[in-house]
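Retry 2 of 3 after timeout on previous attempt. Resubmitting structure tokens to design endpoint.
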């Protein structure tokens, strides 16, 4: 079934649950989270209320994603309560992919963890038993100096141990998150990180280029000249290297930052993040927790308040913690369809675009396609417009060309 052409009730939805706590804020991160763990219990109670208030037992759900923030700051009991409430209020499919983001520092550095009473092996096997069947492990690097620069709370050894423990606990769907492009990082050093991750035969790898997001301490340091970012040429070269290195080792580069293992498991798709693909395919998803976004798969997008205290207070009054709602215009939907299409290896579905827009893709974007073609940045294949690896490096420019044509 092509979910892009189906509505909320006829297409399996995804559920995202935002756990808005971190032991300390990483200086490059602009996700919403706070370090006041005293609010955790109140948050879990409020979250259960939100799940009940938005209950829709007819809604078929096949992905749950516990993200954050740091979901691994939750105790096994809290995870149990949350998953149970989700199952009670929605119709979970038999093969639901339940992903949880795990920060090695919360499980391995026991003195900092609320799960200090149990070992990492025990914690991981407990959450596996509770139904979590996919882990997204925030290793970021296997080098202490780089982890130190990123101000992560874990060591390289902790990252290694948690992956090994996860395998022992029975997880056969493990994703490892890595960051590249930190100041002074060499291509060889990045390759070492990739190879360290590959030693664990992960089913999935997310490789994020370090970015300097406004309103983060890292951005301030950069503006003050305290940090000199890597030059664009080296960053571009690292991006190409990431793709060629991983593809040559049996991974499929299915989204700009994401790679799924292919060779060991014939079905690549099996190891792609089914949940994240819903965002890229404009499939319905419901977001719970502070700052979480929801989309009905058609025109309405909404997001929750970005403040834990406010979130708890609103739910205390049995009200929905929605901060804003936006109704997308037809043109906005088309634009989003183009933008998310550019991110993935499936590209833009030209047939779908033409059906929805009533205009011929190749005529409407003639000028942009001409420029892209001249540079070897993209091509049309089997009624899909797909960016080449080189084109993915210039996605912002390409997107701007498409937007300008849409606006004209
Ligand atoms: S642990 Fe993750 S969510 Fe928390 S601040 Fe660091 S990068 Fe952001």
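Retry 2 succeeded. Sequence:
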């Amino acid at each position: 079934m092509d979910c892009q052409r189906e509505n909320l009730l006829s297409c399996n939805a995804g559920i995202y649950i935002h756990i808005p706590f971190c032991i300390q804020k990483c200086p490059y991160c602009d996700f919403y989270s706070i370090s006041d763990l005293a609010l955790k219990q109140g948050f879990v109670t409020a979250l259960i209320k939100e799940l009940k208030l938005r209950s829709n037992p007819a809604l078929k759900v096949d992905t749950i994603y516990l993200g954050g923030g740091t979901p691994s700051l939750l105790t096994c009991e809290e995870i149990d309560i949350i998953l149970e409430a989700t199952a009670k209020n929605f119709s979970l499919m038999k093969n639901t992919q339940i992903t949880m983001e795990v920060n090695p520092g919360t499980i391995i550095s026991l003195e900092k963890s609320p799960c200090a009473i149990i070992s990492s092996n025990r914690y991981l096997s407990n959450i596996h038993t509770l139904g979590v069947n996919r882990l997204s492990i925030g290793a970021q690097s296997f080098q202490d100096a780089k982890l130190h620069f990123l101000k992560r709370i874990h060591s390289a050894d902790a990252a290694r141990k948690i992956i090994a423990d996860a395998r022992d606990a029975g997880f056969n769907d493990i994703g490892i998150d890595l960051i590249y492009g930190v100041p002074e990082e060499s291509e060889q050093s990045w390759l070492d990180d990739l190879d360290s991750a590959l030693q664990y035969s992960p089913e999935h790898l997310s490789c994020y280029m370090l970015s300097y997001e406004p309103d983060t301490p890292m951005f301030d340091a950069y503006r003050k000249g305290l940090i000199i970012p890597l030059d664009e040429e080296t960053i571009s070269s690292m991006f190409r290297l990431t793709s060629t290195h991983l593809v040559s080792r049996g991974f499929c580069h299915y989204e700009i930052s994401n790679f799924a293992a292919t060779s060991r498991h014939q079905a690549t798709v099996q190891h792609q993040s089914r949940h994240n693909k819903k965002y890229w395919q404009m499939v319905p998803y419901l977001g719970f927790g502070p700052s979480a976004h929801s989309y009905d798969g058609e025109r309405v997008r909404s997001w929750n308040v970005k403040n834990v205290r406010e979130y708890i207070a609103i739910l205390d009054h049995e009200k929905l913690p929605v901060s804003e709602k936006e109704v997308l215009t037809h043109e906005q939907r088309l634009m989003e369809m183009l933008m998310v299409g550019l991110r993935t290896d499936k590209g833009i579905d030209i047939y779908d675009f033409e059906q929805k827009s009533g205009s011929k893709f190749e005529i409407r974007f003639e000028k942009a396609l001409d420029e892209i073609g001249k540079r070897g940045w993209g091509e049309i294949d089997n009624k899909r417009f797909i960016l080449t690896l080189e084109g993915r490096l210039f996605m912002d420019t390409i997107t701007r060309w498409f937007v300008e044509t849409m606006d004209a």
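Attempt log closed. The longest helix spans residues 232-248.
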